[in-house]
Amino acid sequence: MNEQKNNLVIPAAIIIAGFVVAAGIYLSNKGNSPSPAVNPNQNNTSNIVVSPVTSTDHILGNPNAPITLVEFSDTECPFCKSFQATMNSIRESYIKAGTVAWVYRHFPLDSIHPKTRKEAESTECANELGGQTAFWKMLDTIYTNTPSNNQLDHAKLPEFAKSVGVDVTKFNTCLASGKYAAAVEADFQDGIKAGAQGTPYNVLVLKTALSANAESVLNDYILKNGLGQNVIISSDKKDVVLSGALPIDMVKIILDTILNK
Length: 261
Fold this sequence. Notes:
The protein is of the alpha/beta class. The protein has eight helices and seven strands. It has helices at 2-30, 78-95, 116-145, 157-163, 168-177, 181-193, 212-224, 248-258; strands at 44-45, 58-60, 67-73, 100-106, 201-206, 231-234, 239-243. Strand 6 (231-234) and strand 7 form a beta hairpin.
């Protein structure tokens, strides 16, 4: 009888131990999730609040494009590094065609990437000294060269600045001053207001609300591909959230659906 009892207890103990380990892994990884947790059965949410695009924003493409993609990103996030390549592909096929405009805003995840804020400031200094072209080149250079996860050597930032055509002495002075810390924080707060909890976090701001047909097709695509946590349509149909580093093929399908292609 005792042997039978022990035979039952041992497997039960193994199952319980396995559950505890799995729960621990889940909780330890939760803070590093590339996208916020959203009810997978809730594809529509309340209106998303994103600050209007102004002349102080970094924007590529036609300001009057049917879709403005506002990206909140962290240069030390490996998912953002991956998504930068996706966005550069979108740049070639949609931004140059005038159907999508790309707005980049900073969203430093300080608890895991404390270096990111200074990197964000470095892109703003490049912008001050070399204009929007220098900003986008500096951003690309950082993403290309960082190992991610807070591992970029900041001694390389002046080298990057020089490579994008910026005066290194003026760049160093600008970066040391911290003059763009407030601008980076303003972007971060805007991301919080827009619902960002992780990176990359993107809001597609539409000139015209989704048509009933486009919404139906998009909802079907979300359901079939298990994207309830990643693609969210606002209740007014004028914003679509893309949360996490979605692959290029998925992003293109979503954009084409919205554009009724």
